Amino acid sequence: MKLAWWKILCIVLLVYTVIGGLLLSVPRLPILNESIRNLYFHVPMWFGMLAIMFMSVVYSIRYLQKSDPKLDDFAVSAAHTGILFGLLGLATGMAWARYTWGDWWVNDPKLNGAAIGMLIYSAYVVLRNSLEDEQQRARISAIYNIFAFSTLVPLLFILPRLTDSLHPGNGGNPGFSSYDLDNKMRLVFYPAVIGWMLLGVWITQVSYRVKAWQRRREEVGTTKAVVHSR
Amino acid sequence: MGLIQEIQSLIYKEILLEWRQRYALNGMLLYIVSTVLICYMSFNLRGSAMNPPTWNTVYWIILLFTSVNAVAKSFMQERYGRFIYYYTLVSPQGIILSKIVYNSLLMLLLALVGYGFYSLMLSNPVQDHLLFLCSILLGAIGFSTTLTMVSGIASKAGNNSVLMAILSFPVIIPMLLMLMKVSKNAMDGLDRASSSDEILTLLAINAIVVSLSYVLFPYLWRS
Fold it and tell me: Where, by residue number, does the polypeptide cross the bilayer (chain B) (predicted)?
């Protein structure tokens, strides 16, 4: 089995993230305590989700330009991976919120933004399932993907900055980077972000290949049926 | 035929169609009136008056549902054959822009009637009326721009009203939150400068949505 260089890099970085993230020393902060290690898992999920959803939108735009079903397959695979990352981000975030803020869910613009993002992509999946014709499905879901993503961006980046929030990085609360993300943590955090993003691309590629294989099998199946009927 | 002229004649056509079959417009007016009545009765049953934040929230939620229902029919009303006829006559940009303008006018009418009746039934705690009306104007335009495009998408997927709701709600939430904030400021009679951020963001979101519809609708139209 031969792996592309970036897949090897992904494995190395993630192994390093898990081992280094759990064993290397972290700053001792009140309330956060050891849960600060979640930074290596929770934050990269959101980075990964946004990067992969952006990829999905790019492929949707390319689909509208070229009408190649492969591009659509890729956009869907990326959207699915994005949903997976979003759910994992929510799970890690909720566990973290439980132990630091004392509740599973707090009324916070960033959390609500994440929930809405999930709703949008679930609606995208439902929309796809409701359309029968393959070409129409690809085209219309690509349109919705572009439309929804562009309205999601102001939601995630502008709205939280206008309101107060418990979440680091907005509403007067500085981001982690300004004072608590010290140099030791950066040593694990940046590799973790890259590692998780690469994993997302990898998952997307695998699911895209499964789709391509199914498509080819269907085509072969129909040609066989035609040959047999003769 | 220039784009402006095209849009003008299409809007004229929409208004004429609406006027000829008044049941749709009357239906929407009745919808908002009866919803307000339901709210009035159910809140009175509790024996207590609504506090101002609830008043605001309930008004916007009524408006949200009304607009989903009112705009959803903008593509459903048209018969299939008529679309092919339009296809030969006008540009897709003309269609979507005229629908947006027409729906904004319709929503503005519905929102104002709703506002009047709502304040009649459930009293009116608003202090800065001009700002509140401004938020209603922004809301009517914002809802109709977003919903027009979504109803175009939903109409391609078999005019499913559930689909219309699930596709539009997540997209419209940021707008709704911002509007509620502006109208809350208006109710409390805060200084107008304190809501300028929200108003600017709303205008920016509207601009994004209109330009996206302008770019994307031709692709939707072609299929």
Answer: 23-43, 58-76, 96-118, 130-150, 162-179, 199-221
The answer to whether A61 faces chain B, any CB pair under 8 Å, is no
The stretch B183-200 carries a mean pLDDT of 83
Picking from B222, B179, B206, B205, the residue whose alpha carbon sits closest to that of residue B103 is: B206
Q: What is the pLDDT of residues A8-34, one digit of tens each?
A: 888 888 888 888 777 776 666 666 666
Q: What whole-number distance in Å separates Cα of residue A154 and Cα of residue A33?
A: 33
Cβ under 8 Å to A: B residues 181-220:
197-198, 201, 204-205, 208-209, 212-213, 216, 219-220
> Could you tell me if residue A86 is inside a domain?
yes
The boundaries of the domain holding residue A181 are: 5-163+176-229
Residue of B72, B90, B80 whose CA lies nearest to B8: B90
Alpha carbons B110 and B108: distance in angstroms, whole number: 5
How many CB atoms sit inside 10 A of residue A37's CB? 18
Say how far apart CA B156 and CA B69 lie, in whole Å: 17
Residues of chain B with Cβ-Cβ distance to A146 below 8 Å are 212, 216
Q: List the CATH number of the domain containing A129.
A: 1.20.120
Question: Please, are residues B166 and A125 in contact by the beta-carbon 8 Å criterion?
Answer: no
Question: CB B156 to CB A148 under 8 A?
Answer: no
Question: Does residue A31 fall inside a structural domain?
Answer: yes
Number of domains making up chain A: 1
Residue with tokens 């007016």: B29
Residue A52 inside a domain? The answer is: yes
Rounded Cα distance between B189 and B115, Å, is: 18
Q: Which of A136, A151, A159 is facing B209, going by the closest CB pair?
A: A151
CA B141 to chain centre: 6
Determine which of A22-26, A200-204, B191-195 has the lowest per-residue pLDDT on average. Answer: A22-26
Q: Distance between CA B214 and CA B131 in Å, rounded?
A: 29
Residue A12 is assigned to a structural domain of this protein:
yes
